[in-house]
Specification:
DNA Polymerase III, Chain A, domain 2; 9-stranded antiparallel sheet; alpha+beta; elongated
Length: 380
């Protein structure tokens, strides 16, 4: 195998393909990155039996072949190379990498021991890449991070014709993002529970192209795999991952159908206020928000400890209410709103509050994204 490739294209591709390689692989070859040349140019791929990555890069191929090398070491080397073309060639059980006056010789791993990557499922449809990245970043806000509850570390993808919904919850908050996509079959229906970390990384990495192809194999949670593919920089990037097993909780009904209090607050102002006031909130203690007569008052701290309070203008409809939230969870929700105004609706101080984006203080909320947050019981 022998080829030449642009340094920046190689470094980006190696970093992307190697990002999901296991730190402590169950077998040594899983720490490797497969380097192949053929009609597609340069192909780099990685696999840990759960998630696979495959990226193609334009390259000048002199001799076709393949080699398996340490993925993380190759990524470190490529990141440090000077801005010159890179020559790559196999030499027995080693590969040589030359860039300007820099030369590296790397030991290869046995190619025959490397597992075959799963095939990309048949395309289910496409979605604009920027829209998909934004939707996933909003949905993943509420995904769980406790591996002892693996079902909650996933995002539930629901497909019904041209409608797609992404749901996530960690039991303390819930996110729901709805969007339109272009399915291959207009009457398609499917559900999948996708690892949140993989979905977030993949959606973010495919924004350079115009659209993302989504391919789903199997129609139920825990069956088959899901694949994502996009065109980036003259080549393609593809990820497949196994779906999570287990029953995702039925959470849609938790969103209240009506509210007793509605508040609209400037999002950026509220975020800065929560950050300031929460500086005195001790671990696991809430920030208290009191809504009444066009003002929301934020308070934290109590007794002989440090205390803080701040009042902001707000458009309020309905009954006055005082409610407490975990400040981190509240900031996560406000950050995901990504709109000038935060629309907050309440029923009772002990019931979840719903957050949604709004264009201005007089506008109706955009219910394509909703964030439900459990309150923290206030003392006294």
């Amino acid at each position: 195998m022998k080829f030449r490739v642009e340094r920046d294209a190689l470094a980006d591709a190696v970093a992307w393909a190697a990002r999901s390689l296991p730190v402590r692989p169950s077998v040594p070859v899983l720490a490797g990155l497969m380097v192949e040349t053929g009609t597609e140019g340069l192909v780099l791929s990685g696999f840990d039996y759960e998630t696979s990555t495959r990226v193609t890069v334009p390259a000048e191929v002199a001799d076709e072949g393949r080699a398996l090398v340490s993925g993380r070491l190759l990524a470190d080397i490529c990141r440090s190379l000077p801005a010159k073309p890179v020559d790559f060639a196999t030499d027995g059980v080693k590969v040589s990498l030359t860039c300007g006056s820099a030369r590296f010789s790397l030991q290869t791993m046995p190619v025959e021991d490397y597992p075959n990557l799963p095939d990309m499922p048949h395309s289910s449809g496409t979605v604009p890449s920027e829209l998909f990245a934004t939707a996933v970043s909003q949905a993943v806000t509420a995904a769980g991070r406790d591996d002892m509850l693996p079902v909650l570390t996933g995002i539930r993808v629901e497909i019904d014709g041209s409608a797609m919904a992404l749901l996530a919850t960690d039991r303390f908050r819930l996110s729901l993002r709805e969007l339109e996509w272009s399915p291959e079959q207009p009457d398609v229906t499917a559900t999948a529970l996708v690892p949140a970390r993989v979905l977030a990384d993949t959606a973010k990495s495919l924004t350079s192209g115009t659209e993302v192809t989504i391919a789903l194999a199997g129609t139920g949670t825990g069956e088959g795999i899901i694949g994502f593919e996009g065109q980036v920089g003259g080549g393609s990037r593809r990820t497949t991952t196994r779906l999570l097993d287990g029953e995702f909780p039925k959470v849609r009904s938790l969103f209240p159908s009506e509210s007793t209090t509605v508040a609209r607050v400037d999002t950026a102002t509220l975020v800065e206020s929560v950050k300031r006031v929460s500086l005195v909130a001790e671990r696991n203690t809430p920030v208290r928000l009191s809504f009444e007569e066009g003002v929301v008052t934020l308070e934290a701290g109590s007794g002989d400890e440090a205390q803080a309070s701040e009042s902001l203008e707000a458009a309020i409809e309905g009954e006055p209410i005082a409610i407490g939230f975990n400040p981190t969870y509240l900031l996560d929700g406000l950050g995901a709103i990504d709109a000038p105004v935060a629309h907050l609706s309440f029923t009772q101080p002990t019931r979840p509050a719903a957050l949604a984006p709004a264009a201005d203080l007089d506008a109706d909320p955009d219910l394509d994204f909703r964030y439900l947050l459990m309150p923290v019981r206030l003392q006294g």
